[in-house]
Write a structure and sequence with these properties.
Serine Threonine Protein Phosphatase 5, Tetratricopeptide repeat
Amino acid sequence: MTIAELLALLISAQKLTGQSSYERRAPAPKAVPALLAAKSEITRFLAENSESAEAYRLLSLAQECLLNFRGARTSLERAMSLSAQRNPKDLKHLALLREYESKWEALPLTNERDFPVPSGPHSCGIRHPGATMGSSISHQLTRLLEGEVHD
C-alpha cells in the first residue's frame, strides 16, 4: 500500500468513530475493527519503510482514535524526529497528546493482565489503580465512565 492508500483507509475508519479531534472519547464499536485494520496496515508499511515520517503520523492518529495516547505520542515523536523540519501543527498536537495521556493515566484502571478482556460490551467491572491505556478494553471503559454502558 502507498501512503495515500493508508491515509484513505484511516480516514474511512475515522468517519465511523463518531469522535471529534478534540477531547477524544471511545470510538463507536463499529469503527474499532476498521481502526485496527488501518493500524495493522500502517504497521505493516512501517516494517518495510521504517524511515517514513508520514506513516508514523498516520500510526499516531490511528492510535489516538483507539485511545492509546502513549502510543500516539511515541509515534508522533518518531515522525517528528524523522522530519527535516519542525511543523508547528506537530508541536501543538504533541502537547495535546501529552495532556490526554496524563489524563488517562490518572484514571483508576488496570491493564489486561490484571483484569482480562470482558466477553461482552456490558460486562465491564470496577478497575484497580495502576492502569495502562490503549488496550482493547479502553473503549468499553470510556463508555462505562461516560454512563453509556449499563449493567
